[in-house]
Amino acid sequence: MSGPGTATVLGTTGVTGTPFAEQLLIAGWTVYGVSRRRPQFKAGTPLRQFIPQPVDLQDTAALQNALRAVPDISYVFHCANAGSSAARMQSMANLLDALEAGAPHFRNISLLQGMKYYGCHLGPFKTPARENDPRIADNDFYYDEEDMIRQRQAGKSWTWTALRPH
């Protein structure tokens, strides 16, 4: 990714979405911020290129209408937390449907994942954890989300990235 682009940040009111959007704005990106409420950015954040999209990711029609209105999106950064695994999976399906239908310049979706991918919430886990380690039984939604993305992306021109801590 070189130079400023056009991005959608999902969850711009969240603990990762807000600072992520701030950094993109500082770098000169145009940012469509998807959240149910308007984010509270740090003083001095350049907001000229911030366009709020007050949309609930569970509302399929509203999400499709919102993304159809901004067809210049090329990158999506998924920082939203939908609450439950089922809600997050439905939100992801809604998002991919809306992007494929109304964002012809869509090139990449980045999933911001957490340590639960490696099983930290289940107790002690192998460290260092590696991306090619076997999957952990009874893990969080990350595996289902990744499987959905892999299936939906097959044969398409867009790509995906998973960003994990450590």
Please identify the oligomeric state. Answer: single chain
Quickly count the helices.
Answer: 4
Question: Could you give a short account of the major beta sheet?
Answer: 6 strands, parallel
CATH class: Alpha Beta
Radius of gyration: 16 Å
| Count of β-strands | 6
Number of folding domains? 1
Order of helices and strands: EHEEHEHEHE
CATH fold node name: Rossmann fold
Strand content: 15-25%
Q: Enumerate the strands of the largest sheet in spatial order, edge to edge or round the barrel.
A: 3-2-1-4-5-6
Assign the CATH superfamily.
NAD(P)-binding Rossmann-like Domain
Overall SS class: alpha/beta
Helical content class: 25-40%
Low-confidence stretches: none
Mean pLDDT: 88
Based on CA inertia axes, which overall geometry fits? globular
Distance between the termini: 22 Å
Q: What's the CATH architecture? A: 3-Layer(aba) Sandwich
Can you walk me through this structure?
The structure is a single chain. The protein is an alpha/beta fold. It has a single domain (6-163), classed as NAD(P)-binding Rossmann-like Domain (Rossmann fold, 3-Layer(aba) Sandwich). Helices cover 30% and strands 18% of the residues. A 6-stranded parallel beta sheet has the order 3-2-1-4-5-6, sandwiched between helices. It starts with 5 loop residues before the first strand and ends with a strand.
